[in-house]
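worker-3 :: picked Cd(2+)-exporting ATPase
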Amino acid sequence: MKNWQKLSLTFIIAIIAIILEFGFKQPIMTRLLVTVAGAILAISMFIEMIKTLRSGRYGVDLLAIIAIVSTLFIGQYWASLIIIVMLVGGESLEDYAAHRASRELHKLLENSPTFAHKKVGDNYVDTPIDEIEVDDVLLVKASEVVPIDGVVLEGDSWFDESSLTGESEPVTKAIGDDVLSGSINGETAVLIRTSKKAADSQYQKIVQLVRESEATPAQFVRLADRYAVPFTIVSLVIAGAAWFISGDMTRFAEVLVVASPCPLILAAPIAFVGGMSRSSRNGLLVKNGTTIEKLSLAKTVGFDKTGTLTTGVLHVKSIMPETSDYSENDLLQIAASLEIGSNHILAKSLVKRAAENGLALLEVADFRESTGLGLSGMIQNKNYHIGRANFAHADGEKVTGTAVFISEDETFIGKILFEDKIRPESQHVIERLKAQDVQHILMLTGDNEKTAELVAGELGITEVYAGLMPSEKIGILKELPETHRPMVMVGDGVNDAPALALSDVGIALGASGSTVASESADVVVLRNDLNLVPESIKISRETMKVAKEAVLIGIFICIALMLVASTGVLPAIIGALLQEVIDTVSILYALKALKDRK
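worker-3 :: tokens ->
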């Protein structure tokens, strides 16, 4: 039965009991009704407690069961009824608080597109997004959600990417710019060419990850269970002592009435869900319950290099004409004009650099793509080739790093060199992690040792492992001593997936990384910002602090009231009402985990 249904039934029982007691003067019927309801609830809680014990964990239900049974035994059935109402109400309040705390996650699902306007001939046909293929042309109308990742072919407009990046300012997109699914088009219709299938597009990946995170049960209740055994023992000792000293069993029941474990049951999970919601609001998707606790204790953070500490995008480093007939801008203009229609990794960098230099793209005729070699086409009645050295008639040319070669007809006319730049925030991220007392910062990369050492030296990373295959990364992680754990691994590529899955906490840069990496990780960074790695640790530590404080506040208030009740000055019915005050204080404090802190 759902909690709100149990709560409704409990209130109906309470109303009937009041009518029987004060309307029809039938205290015996009232006591019988409350006893039956209390027995049913106690039996159901006992069954749940047995299941908890069988799973190897200690629960907090024993005190509630004893409190209900003892108050019924001494004839304090109104106190028992209040405990029943408060317990069932507490469960319903937990559902409400959890729903409130997780509402940020649902914002990602609200605009999930299901259809796209696909260009077929001269018409546009509404097509399910699962049937859209790579390189299909789609129309995105004004105020519509972009259904699939793509590149602008025609038109320019501004796009609201706040649901993806958290940035409130709209972003202007023009021909050649990438657009992300889930962003909302502004005032002008545009044509886009899809660069991915729906399942691989940014928004669909996020939607799937949100659903997975909601389907994963929270494990944070273990924090409450740690306090359950000592709290139960203390409560029973105080109650037993009160009974022994006074010789009155009523004192035993009066003490246990205020020892109800609602602060333990409610405070920790609510703080935990609040931390997950706060993470989501800040661009972090936490997939499961234990991740926040592990992140809060992180001692080691390992980084992949390419696409993680570096941008992962090759930028134009230098343009080198081979002949005086062509300037640097001439070569760049020819290269960008040929590459505008290509999905090659270097095409975007060339087009972007040409735009930065104020170069207009030239019309290309007889465009051809030779798979694995390069591109060719006619520009101003001249035949150009761009691509590998042997494709562009540049045999014998040697370069260090990545380059493309350009030829006019069969004459080599120049080359363009590329480099992968360090992310502008990487330096600050490493410094912030050190300030957070993360004891070990590693770089694990498949790149060559010289390049890895250069990047590590610039960032202040002293533990570097280069030239690694994915299996070798796993070997290093397995050999980490327990004193270095919990270990956090940060990556973005397919080759990082095994390491992300094996580490204590895997963090994937989902905004620019692969689907496989995101699926293997415990945390997905939804913005293209490495600063969110130390931010995830900060949020986790603050969430754990709030959760522990909320639980301890409830426990200390309960103990204080138990000591008062042991003197006999606190009737059971008043104690039952005060217990709800304790619950409210603990829950309101736990909700602090929702709030961002400077």
